[in-house]
Design brief:
Layout: H1 9-38, H2 41-68, H3 76-96, H4 100-122
Helix pairs in contact: 1-2, 1-4, 2-3, 3-4
């Protein structure tokens, strides 16, 4: 029985969808963080959004594991998703402790990293070209 070495398109798509969901949740968190400054509803929206964002980070890790192990994909997304879940845990702890001086910059970093990962996941893969010297 041969082992598959390419990832399953369904699990790869699930990984992209969960990464997009995570990125959207982070954008929502940034918007509701701004709403905290001017509205009494901002706190409630930001609090609910934090729970959804944390769930999205866990779902991203699950999707990465499914794309890697049974799907035969790369382990790299699992490492990214694990690191991201660690950052999300730190972000939640800083938010609960009201340490805005670290919470806000970490949120910016998380949104940037998630956006970069999403762009990388959605970019078409072009195989490297062989040079004429290799032929």
């Amino acid at each position: 029985m041969s082992r598959r070495t390419t990832s399953n398109p369904r699990t790869a798509s699930f990984l992209k969808v969960t990464l997009a969901l995570q990125t959207l949740c982070l954008f929502f968190q940034a918007a509701t963080a701004g709403a905290l400054l001017g509205s009494s509803h901002g706190y409630l929206l930001h609090d609910i959004g934090s729970k959804v964002m944390y769930g999205a980070a866990m779902l991203y890790l699950l999707a990465a594991i499914l794309a890697w192990r049974p799907g035969g994909g790369s382990v790299r997304p699992v490492l990214y998703a694990t690191g991201f879940l660690v950052l999300a845990s730190a972000q939640v702890a800083l938010g609960v402790a009201h340490v805005a001086s670290l919470h806000v910059p970490l949120g910016v970093v998380m949104f940037t990293l998630s956006t970069l990962a999403l762009v990388g996941a959605l970019s078409p893969r072009v195989p490297p070209r062989r040079s004429t010297a290799d032929a």
